[in-house]
Design the sequence.
């Protein structure tokens, strides 16, 4: 009986391909002929595709749960001993399944967008459906014919190869889906952008839809990136969270351009400026998402993330990407003039508009530096035949100054008024923040921080925090005066009345917390490599560590050496248990770091190989302020959540309502 | 106008770069062994039979395939190796030798039993002596040695359907010293 499910799923996916073709065709027909009949056909097709792909994904999950090793993908990524939790999530543990998961999300989004925007966006909808349908067709072709997760093995093996041990961690379970939600989420604003270019109406409505979808996708992508960093930190056991690996960069680039878009779209909403630029940003964001998918799956770049290499698949993905890129940027170039901004002049150099302009400049330059660093090794290898790798030193050198610039703008941008500001006014507004912003680095200098970037960073963090805190303070004070309510409820009301704005401000605070974490862990970390025998003692920072003993432990599908390490700092005593695990089915031992984390610092102990007689290699890190990064990410998520709850009730001002 | 031209240039530039880059395999680590005489070895056989001696195959093309029962990608190339084993059996100028390294004898035998015998024999190299001599970096890796005993090709990663026709036969046609 077991074998039936996967065939049901396979058939559902094939049918979905046919219906996605129908969705595209009917969408185009509906858009050109403006006939609602075709539009309804496209809508039904989109909904059916979502249902069918849900079935396809479920069939694969069921095959995993039933240990159906006649399915090649299951045999490659699961085993009888794999815990149920990882069985269900092994769906995205490999190339084929994760691609199926990708299309599934796309079909769900396309169904949700159809349903949400059915009445509100009659002009955009046919094109939206056509474009999403076309992307679905492209990915379904790849899933079904070049990397099918439905492939069968005869005879079926008795047991599978098991899931890659690195992926057997909760952090890894959540990292890919959030990342995909982000990548795939950008397809909706992208489709809106293309629809706007094709139908050529410059109404305000699609801008709002685009902004909300982008915000959602951006939040998912951010979460995905943070989960990835978290996973790297806790599972890979190298004491860091970001390595500027090509695939990390691939997820970071769309994040940067999407962030730029989220800022500059405000200028479009307020002043009707930057229209073409915003479309460019959103198309670029989606293009970079595709690029990320391409880099991981075509085998062009080597990376910890890369899937197995297959030339045929690479050619297809490249061809698909070429079509999407040339079509999108081609349409943008040919049609951009239709959407010319009405009021295309900045009123003054010192105004919020120009602050956003600079913000965009920084983000786009940042994305370009990352792109350059990522593609440079490929270019060198292809054109000059040389193997080079571009790593952290390049990125840190180029990226940190840009980040500091962004940080400064974050503070200034909040204070500066729309339309018309003046240097004098700005100076008067900023004056109260300058003393603390200068004092903080001075204190840090006496505290032992010597790195210039660290000092500037600390000053900027204090400065930005002060501007944001005063913003809240002023708002709350006004509310309390006007309404005579308590501090907390005044704060609550303040945020509730303008969730978009304060959601943004909260997000900024989250970023600020993360920056504190970056500065602390980047500049102040200590690291020690040494060999200890049971009974040996070593010091790192304020901690005294004693290696007490080594013992064997075993669980479902792994066995390990576990070291018992007692860490003492003043009154505090903690027992840390770093492990060296050996998963069955894999020869590669995995280091499971033991971490004692506080708000102040992380004590991070990694157990290494046996050395000499009774000795074990240890690597011990003291990473200050790492927790602030995860907290910051939480605050950021909260901020986005607040901003997302403000739906369509945007004060409409005098812009024309609706599109058609 | 300027931005339109730049966008076109950047986009096509990136696409062309990818198209060119598609051909190269990032995992190919240049090996200094190419066109060098193959390092000889004599090793016990996985099947427990007569020891395997590389030099004894002189005069024929030899595909030396390093694998282990612990390696997922080896499973991926396994069906193709079975097919290739049949090809080798039918030709007089081509043999295959497997090297099962960093493995246990039970593990290696169980792998072949479960996923199918290859029709050719395997050297057993638990201490990785051969693997280290040959500069093996991961698994699977394959070397093609010409009848004159020179290493002509190193392939990193699983062999794929069509490899023999696309890669090996052209090399055979070029011939190799004797």
Sequence:
């Amino acid at each position: 009986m077991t074998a039936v499910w996967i065939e049901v799923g396979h058939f559902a996916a094939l049918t979905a391909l046919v219906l996605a073709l129908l969705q595209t065709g009917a969408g185009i027909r509906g858009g050109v002929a403006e006939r609602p009949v075709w539009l309804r056909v496209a809508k039904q097709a989109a909904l059916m595709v979502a249902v069918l792909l849900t079935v396809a994904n479920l069939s694969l999950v069921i095959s995993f749960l039933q240990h159906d090793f006649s399915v090649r993908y299951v045999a490659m990524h699961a085993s009888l001993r794999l815990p149920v939790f990882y069985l269900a999530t092994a769906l995205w543990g490999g190339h084929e399944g994760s691609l199926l998961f990708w299309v599934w999300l796309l079909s769900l989004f396309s169904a949700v967008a159809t349903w949400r925007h059915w009445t509100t966006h009659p002009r955009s909808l046919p094109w939206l459906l056509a474009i999403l349908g076309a992307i679905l067709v492209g990915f379904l072709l790849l899933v079904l014919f070049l990397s099918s997760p439905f492939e069968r093995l005869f005879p079926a093996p008795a047991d599978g190869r098991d899931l890659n041990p690195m992926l057997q961690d909760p952090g890894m379970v959540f990292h890919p889906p959030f990342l995909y939600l982000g990548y795939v989420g950008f397809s909706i604003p992208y489709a809106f952008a293309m629809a706007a270019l094709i139908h050529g109406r410059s109404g305000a409505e699609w801008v709002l839809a685009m902004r909300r979808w982008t915000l959602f996708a951006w939040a998912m992508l951010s979460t995905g990136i943070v989960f990835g960093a978290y996973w790297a930190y806790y599972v890979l056991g190298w004491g860091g969270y970001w390595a500027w690996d090509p695939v990390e960069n691939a997820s970071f680039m769309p994040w940067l351009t999407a962030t730029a878009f989220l800022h500059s779209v405000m200028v479009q909403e307020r002043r009707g400026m930057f229209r073409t630029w915003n479309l460019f940003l959103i198309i670029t964001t989606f293009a970079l998402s595709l690029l990320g998918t391409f880099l991981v799956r075509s085998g062009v770049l080597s990376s910890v993330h890369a899937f197995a290499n297959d030339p045929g698949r690479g050619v297809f993905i490249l061809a698909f990407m070429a079509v999407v890129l040339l079509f999108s940027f081609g349409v943008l170039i040919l049609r951009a003039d239709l959407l010319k901004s009405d009021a295309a002049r900045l009123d003054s150099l010192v105004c919020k508009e120009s602050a956003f302009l600079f913000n965009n400049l920084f983000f786009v330059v940042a994305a370009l530096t990352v792109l350059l660093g990522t593609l440079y090794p490929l270019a060198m290898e292809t054109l000059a035949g040389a193997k080079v790798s571009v790593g952290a030193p390049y990125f840190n050198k180029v990226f940190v100054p840009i980040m500091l610039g962004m940080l400064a703008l974050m503070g200034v941008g909040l204070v500066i008024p729309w339309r018309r500001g003046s240097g004098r006014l700005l100076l008067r507004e900023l004056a109260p923040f300058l003393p603390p912003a200068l004092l903080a680095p001075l204190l840090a200098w006496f505290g032992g921080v010597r790195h210039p970037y660290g000092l500037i960073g600390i000053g900027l963090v204090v400065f930005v925090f002060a501007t944001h805190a005063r913003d809240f303070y002023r708002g709350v004070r006004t509310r309390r005066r006007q309404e005579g309510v308590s501090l907390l409820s005044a704060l609550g009301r303040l945020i509730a009345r303008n969730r978009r704005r304060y959601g943004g401000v909260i997000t900024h605070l989250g970023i600020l917390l993360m920056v504190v974490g970056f500065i602390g862990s980047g500049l102040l970390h200590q690291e020690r490599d040494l060999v200890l025998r049971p009974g040996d003692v070593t010091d790192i920072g304020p901690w005294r560590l004693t290696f007490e003993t080594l013992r064997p432990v075993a669980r479902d599908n792994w066995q390990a050496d576990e070291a018992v390490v007692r860490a003492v700092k003043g009154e505090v005593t903690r027992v840390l248990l770093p492990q060296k695990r050996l998963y069955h089915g894999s020869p590669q031992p995995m280091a499971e770091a033991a971490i004692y984390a506080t708000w102040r610092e992380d004590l991070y102990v990694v157990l290494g190989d046996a050395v000499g007689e009774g000795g074990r290699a240890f690597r011990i890190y003291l990473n200050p302020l790492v927790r602030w990064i995860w907290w910051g990410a939480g605050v950021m998520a909260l901020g986005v959540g607040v901003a997302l709850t403000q739906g369509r009730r945007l004060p409409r001002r005098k812009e024309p309502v609706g599109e058609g | 106008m300027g931005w339109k031209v730049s966008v076109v240039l950047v986009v096509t530039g990136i696409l062309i770069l990818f198209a060119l880059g598609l051909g190269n395999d990032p995992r190919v680590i240049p090996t200094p062994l190419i066109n060098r005489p193959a390092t000889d070895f004599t090793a016990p056989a996985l099947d427990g039979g007569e020891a395997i001696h590389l030099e004894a195959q002189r005069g024929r093309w030899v595909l030396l395939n390093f694998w282990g029962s612990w390696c997922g990608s080896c499973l991926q190339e396994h069906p193709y190796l079975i097919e290739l084993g049949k090809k080798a059996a039918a030709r007089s100028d081509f043999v295959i030798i497997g090297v099962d390294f960093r493995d246990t004898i039970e593990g290696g035998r169980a792998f072949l039993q479960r996923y199918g015998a290859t029709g050719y024999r395997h050297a057993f190299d638990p201490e990785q002596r051969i693997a280290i001599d040959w500069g093996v970096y991961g698994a699977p890796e394959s070397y093609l040695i010409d009848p004159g005993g020179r290493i002509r090709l190193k392939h990193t990663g699983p062999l794929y359907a069509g490899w023999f026709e696309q890669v090996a036969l052209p090399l055979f046609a070029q011939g190799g010293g004797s």
The mean pLDDT of chain B is 84. Chain B has five helices and seven strands. Strands of chain B lie at 42-43, 52-53, 61-67, 94-101, 122-125, 141-145, 151-156.
